[in-house]
């Protein structure tokens, strides 16, 4: 079974080819460089750049395998959520290919795709407990099959990645801030500043706006007093508070849902501390299938959409 999958929901245009569960190609055109000067993704620019890139991405994704477009059995694409202009371009490409080769079209959910990112190269078992951490989401999902996703807790205000990016901007680190704070945190003392652990309650929901305000106030106060801002200590203290809550909520969810697989998904799954927490929890609770995604599967990519499509087709047969 051969699947061609398209992911275009934000500032990456990516196409992946999967054959019988194996990823044969995963070509990603990233636009981060073009958005840096604007301090974030500019939706219209993202859509325009997708138009410029889609043709070479399709060509390279197919040519790096021995598969011809006519041999594809299913065409999958990210239907939602995402930037509307970016999504439309992915949909148009998917529809055109599917009509041309007369094969079924599969509109899929971006976050469900992310969840399969770490499962691409691994055997796993349901139920899967997935921590989703990205620029737009902080949520915990229990996945009982490729057609059964339950969100047990979600973002109430700023998502974790958004919070990293906003704090980084105030620290003068530029966009995207997440990786920069993560790197700086290595050199800092995470007990230097006593920050509130966000939404430290019994629910599985997440709220990062209080932590964001607390850290931004600390930076402004230091600047006002003319004191030097110890950016490494700030980064380390922020990272500690931002990720500690993930550990707490996941630990509770593991006890309640007894997952057979534990995973993490989304852009912030590249974070050093988040990865450490997942692997440590997996060991502590003896969850043999504990996986963090390869770096190329942390950011948006077609392979995760191809894998989701494959698992859905398998579970429907
Ligand atoms: O999933 P993603 O690529 O896009 C969305 O769908 O939102 O996630 C992007 C987010 C950005 O906020 C970026 O700063 C964050 O992931 N990020 C990180 C790290 N790498 C990327 N945040 C913290 N630590 C990292 N190492
Ligand atoms: Zn994403």
TrEMBL record:
Needed co-factor(s): Fe(2+)
Keyword Nucleotide-binding: no
Subcellular localization: Cytoplasm
EC number: 2.3.1.234
Residues annotated to bind substrate: 132-136, 165, 178, 182, 271
One MF term in the entry's GO annotations: iron ion binding
Cofactor binding notes: Binds 1 Fe(2+) ion per subunit.
Gcp-like domain: residues covered: 22-307
Highest taxon of source: Bacteria
Keyword Phosphoprotein assigned: no
Binding site for Fe cation: 110, 114, 300
One Pfam family, short name: TsaD
GO cellular component labels: cytoplasm
InterPro entries: ATPase_NBD (IPR043129), Gcp-like_dom (IPR000905), KAE1/TsaD (IPR017861), TsaD (IPR022450)
GO biological process: tRNA threonylcarbamoyladenosine modification
Keywords: Acyltransferase, Cytoplasm, Iron, Metal-binding, Transferase, tRNA processing
Function text: Required for the formation of a threonylcarbamoyl group on adenosine at position 37 (t(6)A37) in tRNAs that read codons beginning with adenine. Is involved in the transfer of the threonylcarbamoyl moiety of threonylcarbamoyl-AMP (TC-AMP) to the N6 group of A37, together with TsaE and TsaB. TsaD likely plays a direct catalytic role in this reaction.
Matching PANTHER family: TRNA N6-ADENOSINE THREONYLCARBAMOYLTRANSFERASE, TRNA N6-ADENOSINE THREONYLCARBAMOYLTRANSFERASE, MITOCHONDRIAL
Protein name per Swiss-Prot or TrEMBL: tRNA N6-adenosine threonylcarbamoyltransferase
Gene this protein is translated from: tsaD
């Amino acid at each position: 079974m051969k699947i061609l999958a398209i992911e275009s929901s934000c500032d990456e245009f990516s196409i992946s080819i999967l054959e019988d569960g194996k990823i044969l190609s995963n070509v990603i055109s990233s636009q981060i460089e073009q958005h840096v000067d604007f301090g974030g993704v500019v939706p219209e620019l993202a859509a325009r750049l997708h138009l410029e890139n889609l043709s070479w991405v399709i060509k390279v994704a197919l040519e790096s395998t021995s598969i011809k477009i006519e041999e594809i059995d299913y065409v999958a694409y990210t239907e939602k959520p995402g930037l509307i202009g970016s999504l439309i371009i992915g949909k148009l490409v998917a529809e055109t290919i599917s009509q041309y080769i007369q094969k079924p079209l599969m509109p899929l959910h971006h976050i469900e795709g992310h969840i399969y990112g770490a499962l691409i190269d691994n055997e796993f078992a349901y139920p899967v407990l997935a921590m989703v951490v990205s620029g737009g989401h902080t949520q915990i999902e229990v996945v009982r099959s490729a057609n059964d996703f339950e969100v047990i807790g979600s973002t109430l205000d700023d998502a974790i990645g958004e919070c990293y990016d906003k704090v980084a901007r105030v620290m003068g680190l530029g966009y995207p801030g997440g990786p920069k704070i993560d790197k700086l945190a290595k050199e800092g003392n995470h007990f230097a500043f006593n920050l509130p652990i966000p939404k430290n309650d019994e629910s599985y929901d997440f709220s990062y706006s209080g932590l964001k305000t607390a850290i931004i106030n600390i930076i402004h106060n230091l600047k006002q007093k003319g004191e030097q801002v110890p950016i490494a200590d700030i980064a380390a203290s922020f990272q500690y508070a931002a990720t500690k809550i993930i550990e707490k909520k996941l630990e509770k969810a593991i006890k309640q849902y007894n997952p057979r697989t534990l995973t993490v998904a989304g852009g912030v799954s590249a974070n050093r501390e988040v990865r450490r927490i997942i692997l440590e929890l997996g060991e502590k609770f003896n969850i043999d299938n504990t996986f963090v995604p390869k770096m190329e599967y942390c950011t948006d990519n077609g392979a995760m959409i191809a894998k989701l499509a494959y698992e859905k087709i398998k579970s429907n047969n």
